[in-house]
Amino acid sequence: MTRQVVDKFELTRDQHLEFTARTKSHLSNMLQLLSLGQQKQHQLGTKVHDKMGLRAYTDGDSTTITGHLATTMMDLEYGVYATTTKQVQTVAAILHSHQYDDAGLLDLQQSHTIEDPFQFVGVKYVALARKGMFAKPHQIVYLEATGSLHDDGVARLYQMVEYVDLVHVYTAKATWSQAIRPVCSTLTLFEADPNDIKSVRVFSRARYSKDTPSPLHQMHQPPAYWEYVLSLASLAVSRRLVDATSLVQHWVPNSSCKTCSVCDAGFKALRPKHHCRSCGEMMCHACSIPIQSPTVMHKYCTKCVLRSRELRGNDKVELPRKQSVRRPVPSATSSSSHDGEFLRSIRETTKHLNTPSPSPSPHHQQQHVLTPPPPVEHKQLKALEKITDSIAHQESLIVSMREALDRQKRFAAASNSITSTAGTADSYTADELLDTLPSEQHRFEYLDT
């Protein structure tokens, strides 16, 4: 894979037909595999991860993710579909989060039709941010095909992605059709859950080899690829918020807000506060969700995120006006199970935005099992609150002590000034005092009594 910037990459007719044929072949194989039911598990490899409704399998040459996503088919269609450079940048920024540097559309072969509003065939690119001072961004060019399937009366969506070996493209002496060689490919199939309209079945497989460049290889290992597929559940919600983000009409001043607008927790020394980029209200760190946009990372409160989730497809998020009254929103514990599951998934996929994790070394790339964080007990939370209150009390005592010391210093300085003035006359003798007067105009006599 080359690191040079690619400004233009157009598919020829033969390349388009060959890519379409490969897509149909992969789709046929995947549908045949899904028809096996439970018998297909031994063909997926070893299960290395099972969390939040998604299971990850690997056999050394591929990674397979299967399970359920807390979203709808309409939201997936809106979130994944992108036919302009601006749309591609928004989707890539949300999915790649802190690794995102740039993205764009290079070639558009097919777009949506009345029969298939999810149809797309074209060429896109994404540039990953450099991971070191002397490293350069990695630009990845890939072919993408999306569409709808209605076999056996079941609604399905698919997305096929082939990453192009640019080194082979620019160094090969053969024709363009022979020069394009995919070094990595992914195929994702979405299927509506007949038992739950707010749940979607997903089956995604990534194939790679020893010739796959390191950035692509890391992106499609079980831990990273599991997180990528999980982020598809919140992609539409995040995209609606980013698309609607503009100058907030009402920005709550810091001085006028003492509690979080979501959980009503008071702001203290160890509880930082942030402004929601959608409604402008103040929120604590626990009630904020970071979402990466193409230009900057924004933070949104959970009530605006849940409000965006109530919309469908490309519905617009309405920004509240200044006269709007703050409405309390129930927390995730008291809301529906779907909202709670959704908030857990979006927090899982955005946890790296505040503290990006370093890239794994080749030695650790073989360790695919994710270690879940230890659960936080109620006693630990109470102890943390007591420590926070104690620190705040100590800070107030320190401020009072500093003010008392300043008053003592000012009083001591004033006392020293008075003492030095009174002691000035005592430091002279009578003769020395007489010498300070004009001798010719004044005469003094000493009388003995």
Question: What attributes does this structure have?
Answer:
nine-stranded antiparallel sheet; 35% helix; 449 residues; FYVE-type domain-containing protein; Herpes Virus-1; single chain; Rab4/Rab5_effector; alpha+beta; Alpha-D-Glucose-1,6-Bisphosphate, Chain A, domain 4; two-stranded antiparallel ribbon; Znf_RING/FYVE/PHD
N- and C-termini, Cα separation: 117 Å
The CATH topology assignment of the largest domain is Alpha-D-Glucose-1,6-Bisphosphate, Chain A, domain 4
Structural class: alpha+beta
Low-confidence stretches: 322-335, 356-373
Describe the structure in brief.
The chain is of the alpha+beta class.
Describe what you observe in this structure:
The protein has helices at residues 13-34, 73-80, 85-96, 166-171, 176-179, 214-219, 222-231, 235-244, 302-309, 337-350, 378-426, 430-435, and strands spanning 46-51, 54-58, 62-69, 100-110, 120-128, 138-149, 156-164, 182-192, 200-208, 273-275, 282-284, 288-292, 297-301. The protein is built from 12 helices and 13 strands. 35% of the residues lie in helices and 21% in strands. Mean pLDDT is 78; it is low at 322-335 and 356-373. By secondary structure, it is an alpha+beta fold. The protein has 2 domains: 13-233, Alpha-D-Glucose-1,6-Bisphosphate, Chain A, domain 4 (2-Layer Sandwich), CATH 3.30.530; 246-356, Herpes Virus-1. Strand 12 and strand 13 (297-301) form a beta hairpin. The chain has a 9-stranded antiparallel beta sheet with strand order 1-2-3-9-8-7-6-5-4, with helices on both faces. A two-stranded antiparallel sheet has the order 10-11. Strands 12-13 form a two-stranded antiparallel sheet.
